[in-house]
Amino acid sequence: MAARTLYLVRHGHAAADGNLSDDGRRQAELTGLRLAGVPFAAVHHGSLPRATQTAHLIAAQLPGVPVASSELADDYVPYVPESLPPVWSGFFDGYSAPELADGARRARALVERFAAPPTQDVHELVVTHAFAVAWLLRHALDAPEHRWLGLNQANCGVTVIRYDEQRPPAPLVFNDLSHLPEPLRWTGFPPHLRP
Q1: How far is the C-alpha of 164 from the C-alpha of 58, rounded, in Å?
Q2: What is the pTM of this model?
Q3: Rounded distance, CA 105 to CA 83, Å?
Q4: How far is Cα 10 from Cα 137, in angstroms, rounded to an integer?
Q5: 123: alpha, beta or left, given left = phi > 0 and alpha = psi -120 to 50?
Q6: CA 6 centroid distance within chain
Q7: Measured between alpha carbons, how far is 29 from 56 in angstroms, rounded to an integer?
């Protein structure tokens, strides 16, 4: 029975210009060390500088593993419910209807590509953004589409989901930060949710 073990990592902490900060670079390096023993077939990443830089810093600890950009790992809104909880009102106002439609298309393609059981055992790493991690976790839990809202991922948090044809998707790890020292944990998390 073949299984896909999907590792999801949100990019490291970024500076205002969109590139990794010093903390973000250190987070990525430590994440690479954490994942160094995993037999990855590939590292996929979004095209924005913070995701690209994170992926390459992680891949430096994964010799021989191919690294490629994927539009599916970019930063987009996967789904906006017709009725938003009050805390979310206004959050999506800056997105145009075509941008939201494109986000929904990419979200469907993300699931089709990365959440399908494979024909052989495979470990893949996707360095992406918080929304994509939330969307894939929501899908694995078979939760309603709106439930991706509020599933937060810290910078360089590790989430692992296993897919096989015999069982429902199995979230094994969510937002693990144990590889990061305390000062580098919880960046990218809303302040009111930090421990």
Answers
A1: 26
A2: 0.96
A3: 20
A4: 13
A5: beta
A6: 10
A7: 9
Q: pLDDT 10s per residue in the chain (195 long)?
A: 799 999 999 999 999 999 999 999 999 999 999 999 999 999 999 999 999 999 999 999 999 999 999 999 999 999 999 888 888 878 888 899 999 999 999 999 999 999 988 889 999 999 999 999 999 999 999 999 999 998 999 999 999 999 998 899 999 999 999 999 999 999 988 888 788
| Dihedral of the alpha carbons of 193, 137, 1, 124, in degrees to the nearest 10 | -80
Q: Round to whole Å and give the CA distance between 193 and 195.
A: 6
Which among 195, 153, 184 has a CA at the least distance from the CA of 27?
A: 184
Q: Confirm if 101 and 155 have CB atoms less than 8 A apart.
A: no
* C-alpha pair distances (Å), 164 with each of 5, 117, 122, 135, 172: 9, 5, 11, 19, 13
| Burial (CB count within 10 angstroms: exposed 0-12, middle 13-18, buried 19+), residue 94 | exposed
Rounded to whole angstroms, the Cα distance separating 177 from 166 reads: 30
- Stated length of the chain: 195
